[in-house]
Write a structure and sequence with these properties.
single chain; Serine Threonine Protein Phosphatase 5, Tetratricopeptide repeat; 7 helices; 54% helix; globular; DUF3151 domain-containing protein; DUF3151
């Protein structure tokens, strides 16, 4: 015996949300709240809304949306058999909404100075998937008030020849 835990915990794998993914694909970032209204139990929809409001510099709203996504994520995890701990792998795409909601809540907690919550959520994310924080930070970077999306309006530059 080496002292290691010989009983590995099973991974929690959430069911896919194809209708949510499709709704998000066809919805402008400024209209994500409409997707949440149609799919209020989706942690992914709440995470998207938290990210969108964060990008607009609306920190407290982002934090609140992330908090709802976190609770919806816990509901989904428990429904899938999760017992409060164990792996929630990022590589399983349906898990990403929950992990992103956790990340958004952690980001919001950091913004408002909730150090204990940042520590708790860092541990939660690391226990869920050791690569989640770095992957999400890479994919969902942006500072408050800076929308990383390119402009969608066309413009014309007129000048003299």
């Amino acid at each position: 015996m080496t002292g290691d835990n010989l009983i590995s915990e099973p991974e929690t794998l959430l069911p896919a949300e194809p209708e949510v993914l499709e709704a998000l694909r066809r919805t402008a970032r400024s209209e994500i709240a409409g997707v949440v209204q149609v799919h209020p139990t989706s942690p992914l929809a709440w995470a998207e809304l938290a990210d969108a409001t964060y990008a607009e510099g609306r920190i407290l709203e982002s934090y609140a949306y992330a908090r709802v996504g976190y609770h919806r994520g816990l509901d989904a995890l428990r429904k899938a058999g999760w017992r409060g701990h164990g792996p929630i792998p990022w590589r399983h795409e349906p898990n990403r909404g929950v992990l992103r909601a956790l990340f958004a809540l952690r980001r919001g907690a950091e913004e408002i100075g909730e150090a204990d919550e940042v520590s708790r959520l860092t541990a939660f994310l690391t226990d869920a998937d050791t690569s989640a924080i770095s992957i999400i930070a890479t994919l969902h970077t942006g500072s408050p008030g800076s929308d990383p999306a390119p402009p969608t309006e066309a413009f014309v530059i007129r000048g003299e020849d």
